[in-house]
Amino acid sequence: MQTGKLFAVATTVLGLLAASCGLGASPTAKPAEVAPKLETRVAKPTTAPAAPSPTAKPAADQPRYGGILTRAMDADLDHFDLQQAQAANFSQILFNVYQGLVRLHPIEHQKIVPELAEKWEISPDGKTYTFKFYKDIRWHDGKPFTVEDVKYSLQRIHRPREFKTVSPRGEALLTAMDSVETIGEDTIRLNTLYPSASFLLNLATGWIGIGPKHILLAKGDMRRDAIGTGPFKLKESNAGVSVELTKNANHFDKGVPHLDGIKFYVVRDGGTRFSAFRTGQVRMTFIGSKGLSDTEAEIVKREMVDQAVVYDHDSQARFTLAFNFQRSPWNDVRVRKAVDLAFDHQAAIKVGGNRGHIGSIYPQPWGMKPDELAKLPGYRSPKDADIAEARRLMAEAGFAGGLKTTLLFRAAEPNVRQAEVTRDQLAKIGINAELVVLQQAALEDRMARRAFDLVCINWTANTSDPDETLYTYYASGGSRNYGGFSDKMMDELIDKQARTLDKKEREVLLAQIERRSTDLVPMLILFWDLYQMGAWKEVKGFKPGPGVHPWGKFDRVWLAK
Fold first, then answer.
1. pLDDT at residue 34 in the model
2. Which residues pair with 247 in a beta bridge?
3. Within the chain, which residues score under 50 in pLDDT?
4. I need a labelling partner for 69 at 20 to 30 A (CA). Which of 144, 180, 435, 480 fits?
5. pLDDT digits (tens, 9 = 90+) for 427-443
């Protein structure tokens, strides 16, 4: 049995806090209700031990209540249906309105802790998950939360075509799910197709947010309604101006949220967003590549050292070069291998502002480490031997005199710079790539129709687990496998590792997939990005990263003044 209680939130703080940011104790919580350290392994059912009693800290370090946190974002929400959302701005707003069964810890991001579900049990064979929910949960419109809401929402996310909807993130995260059963008034059972190493983590991402069945049935979606169970409610949305959330005073965890509200200002221009941050109009920048540029981060460190902090964090985003396997010469492994060998990854990192690292096909901590990769062909320095071998392969494939192709990319920084450096790298072995810039929708359309030769694009993973990356980008029929790559051995290994609960055994399989990927080059990973964001020093109780999604819940964020 894996169990957990809500985080304690007011007068004390746990010893795991970083930089005076953390979870306190609820005014009504009993000492035993301090959040336990949860086991996330599922090979054997276990009972989680309780955490030691928290130690009181000086009043100045204790979370405070009140205040409105102001933030900047780069675009409007075009709807409020989290189950149909994809963009990062949805996560930073709607993760605070909707809740899931479980969530990631806001400070120790690899830990899975309770949200709507009070406790859960995983069967010995790893195929059945039983969740028991907290009592007295209500939707923002006052109606009671029920297990039927959970069942309907999970089915809607899992089978979007049946419900005549789309689920760009959630469907992939529920790949292992088979069925949902309700047990009494407070329990559900999720049955999976196989023992899944990543299933519980996928449920905790935030994208598996539960919606109200009574509204979904009446209206068909939540595009015009933001009714959740979360610690914040939608107060107002002004198109092109702002989105404002207000405290849910009736939240079932009476200790949260600390803030009275969060106001997101829509500021499309990056320079204007930074000016708003420097002048204090917003106390926190946006996230991801829309956070702080290198120049802006240096300004904050130099001129705002007493007011603000720059946070560097792993992005779980990688810049990639995708090949169309339905077109010559990209269906020839020799040409793909030549590109792999010739590409200077350090040049791409430099163009990206020296924020990033070479990496394997998996997000860290999985896969081959950068120092190991740096010794291999295609990654090692100097590049002379690799370029010579690349030219030999090009000649062997019949392209000793070079070839012409097209390279598509999105009309936004930093994609433009990466497309340019990719063109220059291809030119070293005689590949003349014409750059074709497209808006996001047009680019997605071309990729979906496989009407391209090469695409330079960045992708962000929802979780650090390899499953999402492998099933989305490398498995036959993967939702982002736009190039049509297909390999029977790769598919078999992907399925096998997903069903392997023993971490060491799984690592062996993942290493085999990594080697197979090196041989076939289904996609070129240019580099893994790093992000920077800024916050004024009075903003406490959060820790950025990894990625842009796991830390998007702000129920325990507080303002020091």
1. 30
2. 232
3. 1-58
4. 144
5. 999 999 999 999 988 99
| Cα gap 551→204, rounded to integer Å | 11
Could you write out the DSSP letters of every residue in 353-415? Answer: TS-EE---SS-TTSS--HHHHTTSTTTSSS-HHHHHHHHHHHHHTT-TT-EEEEEEEESSTTH
The label of the residue with tokens 């072995």 reads: 429
Structure-block tokens of residue 459: 């992708």
What is the chain's percent helix, strand, coil content, to nearest 5?
30, 20, 50
Residue 559 pairs in a beta bridge with: 539
Asked if 550 and 317 count as a contact pair (C-beta separation under 8 A), the reply is no
Q: Which residues pair with 436 in a beta bridge?
A: 408
Q: Give the list of residues 6+ apart from residue 464 with CB closer than 8 angstroms, or none.
A: 110, 316, 363, 364, 365, 366, 546, 547
Alpha-carbon radius of gyration of the chain: 24
* CA distances for 286 relative to 47, 228, 311, angstroms: 39, 23, 12
Residues 458, 463, 466, 469: what is their CA dihedral angle, to the nearest 10 degrees?
-30
> What is the bridge-based pairing of β-strands 117-122 and 102-104?
unpaired
Q: Residue for token digits 């069967």?
A: 123
**CA neighbor of 389 nearest in space, from 331, 315, 337:** 337
- SS3 category, 1: coil
**Which tokens go with 247?**
């405290």
Write out the DSSP string of 310-361. EEEEEEEEEEEEEE-TTSTTTT-HHHHHHHHHH--HHHHHHHTTS-EE---S
User: Which of 495, 327, 312 is CA-nearest to residue 408?
Assistant: 327
Q: What is the pLDDT of residues 151-188, one digit of tens each?
A: 999 999 999 989 988 887 788 889 899 999 999 999 99
Tell me how far apart the alpha carbons of residues 452 and 446 are, in angstroms, rounded to a whole number.
Answer: 7
CATH number for 315-530: choose from 3.10.105.10, 3.90.550.10, 3.20.20.140, 1.10.1650.10: 3.10.105.10
pLDDT of residue 33: 28
Q: Where in the chain are the domains? A: 315-530
- Measured between alpha carbons, how far is 228 from 226 in angstroms, rounded to an integer? 6
Cis peptide before 49 (omega within 30 of 0): no
Provide the strand spans (E) within 50-135.
68-73, 102-104, 112-114, 117-122, 128-133
Residues 6+ apart with CB under 8 A from 512: 493
For residues 402 and 430, is the Cβ–Cβ distance under 8 A? yes
Name the packing angle between helices 503-520 and 488-498 (round to 10°): 160
Q: Is the whole model's pTM more than 0.90, yes or no?
A: no
What is residue 550's predicted lDDT score, i.e. its pLDDT?
A: 64
Please report the pLDDT score of residue 42 as a whole number. 32
